[in-house]
Automatic annotation (TrEMBL), chain A:
CDD domains in UniProt: Sigma70_r4
Keyword Membrane: no
Basic and acidic residues bias spans: 1-11
Keyword Methyltransferase recorded: no
Pfam family, one: Sigma70_r2
InterPro entries: RNA_pol_sigma-70_dom (IPR014284), RNA_pol_sigma-B/F/G (IPR014322), RNA_pol_sigma70 (IPR000943), RNA_pol_sigma70_r2 (IPR007627), RNA_pol_sigma70_r3 (IPR007624), RNA_pol_sigma70_r4 (IPR007630), RNA_pol_sigma_r2 (IPR013325), RNA_pol_sigma_r3/r4-like (IPR013324)
Residue ranges of every copy of the RNA polymerase sigma-70 domain listed in the record: 70-83
Domain of life: Bacteria
Record protein name field: RNA polymerase sigma-70 domain-containing protein
SUPFAM superfamilies: Sigma2 domain of RNA polymerase sigma factors (SSF88946), Sigma3 and sigma4 domains of RNA polymerase sigma factors (SSF88659)
Region (Disordered): 1-21
Source lineage: Bacteria, Bacillati, Actinomycetota, Actinomycetes, Propionibacteriales
Keywords of the record: DNA-binding, Sigma factor, Transcription, Transcription regulation
Automatic annotation (TrEMBL), chain B:
PANTHER family xref list: ANTI-SIGMA-F FACTOR RSBW, ANTI-SIGMA-F FACTOR RSBW-RELATED
Name assigned to this protein: Anti-sigma factor
Gene3D superfamilies according to UniProt: Histidine kinase-like ATPase, C-terminal domain
Native source species: Nocardioides panacisoli
């Protein structure tokens, strides 16, 4: 379960509470005497109240290559439609009425939006059948099935399976920053693509400085080393070498200036 | 089912050849044919997926060495639950086989056997895939 679901708290008998609250909100929503503001508020509250239903429906479509959040979003459109169209006189529960609409909206999303290339509906449905049959046969056989076994299970020819597999390649596109839908939040493809190392520009400078450092007198080299590699303060260096801190400061400044001048002369 | 049996009946000696322009744009034709043949030889879906990748790598290696305007010659030998694929091209002066390359590592991992044959005038990559369902030999 996604961690970001504060409203999805499983209290004792939440169904009854939700049902009562839902009925009450529908009365408010449909009240002809209510102000527009009150009706909008009731509609809004109804949508929020039933969001867990959308998440429940969307969860059934996980692992099909579309991000869970996107499915919740299109499912919510189905929920809003259901709220607007629900007939309280019918005597059915709202969730009974809304579920097919929500699932229908998600399925339509897969059919219309999911494909990178417009693929005939026959092939789209075949691909879904192949996916389902593959999963089932893999379970039953304890190994990956052959196209012939899938064909027999669906009731079509090997020819059609091969065709269906070809078409599923049209479905393989993935947004660069789409994360893996799993719970541990695997990094997106974009995260896996390398960038120029931030320190790359420093390489050249470091390489040019190296011979200059080699050419420094022993004491100056030691001071630089203690200051910048061992991270010692000027006073500590002064104690270590046996000169005053002021002298260390002067030597450091002079050495750095020399290095900079030689680098610039080189460039 | 009957169509599978037709292929199976003659599979013991069946050879298939495909000649394509040596251009990566045609690699998908090679992949599709390979998958189609493997499907009829009762390779499993996983095997077919591996085979697609292996053949792509082989084709990429061969295309790198192809002379301008050369053909990509693909031969398939089917039988005994094995599919042998040889992808070759004419290459006047092919590079030494690079057994450190990523492509070769992938190919060698996926295929049961794989080899590169580089000689003046020709460069070819051979790979053998065995169906997971074939009886162990």
């Amino acid at each position: 379960m996604a961690p970001s679901e504060p409203r999805d708290e499983r209290q004792p008998a939440p169904g009854d509470v939700t049902r009562q609250r839902s009925a009450q909100l529908f009365v408010e929503f449909r009240d002809p005497d209510a102000t527009d503001g009150a009706r909008d508020a009731a509609r809004e509250a109804l949508v929020h109240l039933h969001l867990p239903l959308v998440e429940h429906c969307a969860r059934r479509f996980r692992n099909r290559g579309e991000p869970f959040e996107d499915l919740v979003q299109v499912g919510t459109i189905g929920l809003i439609k259901s709220v607007d169209r629900f007939d309280t006189e019918r005597g059915v529960e709202f969730s009974t009425y809304a579920t097919p609409t929500i699932i229908g909206e998600i399925k339509r999303y897969f059919r219309d939006k999911g494909w990178a290339i417009r693929v005939p509906r026959r092939l789209q449905e075949l691909r879904m059948q192949i996916t389902a049959a593959t999963a089932e046969l893999t379970q039953g056989l304890g190994r990956s099935p052959t196209p012939r076994e899938i064909a027999e299970s669906i009731g079509c020819s090997v020819e059609e399976i091969v065709e269906g597999l070809e078409s599923s390649n049209a479905y393989a596109t993935l947004s660069l920053d789409a994360g893996d839908d799993s719970d541990d939040g695997a990094p997106s493809m974009l995260d896996a693509i390398g960038i120029d190392d931030a320190a790359l520009a420093q390489v050249e400078i470091r390489e040019s400085v190296k011979p200059l450092l080699e050419g420094l007198p022993e004491r100056e080299k030691r001071i630089l080393l203690l200051r910048f590699f061992k991270n010692m303060t000027q006073s500590q260096i002064a104690a270590e070498i046996g000169v005053s801190q002021m002298h260390v400061s002067r030597l450091l400044t002079r050495t750095l200036e020399q290095l900079r001048a030689s680098l610039e002369a080189d460039a | 089912m009957s169509e599978t049996n037709i292929v199976r009946g003659i599979a013991a000696h069946a050879d298939v050849e495909l000649r394509l322009p040596a251009d990566s744009a045609y690699a998908s034709v090679l992949r599709t044919l390979t998958a189609g043949l493997a499907a009829r030889l009762d390779f499993t879906m996983d095997d077919i997926e591996d085979l697609r990748i292996a053949v792509s790598e082989a084709a990429a290696m061969v295309l790198d060495e192809a002379d301008p305007g050369a053909d990509l010659d693909c031969r398939f030998r089917l039988g005994d639950g094995r599919l042998t694929v040889v992808v070759s091209t004419t290459a006047a002066d092919p590079a030494e086989p690079d057994y450190e390359s990523f492509g070769w590592q992938v190919l060698a991992t996926l295929a049961e056997e794989a080899s590169i044959d580089a000689a003046p005038g020709t460069y070819s990559v051979c790979l053998v895939m065995r169906s997971a369902l074939a009886p162990a030999t």
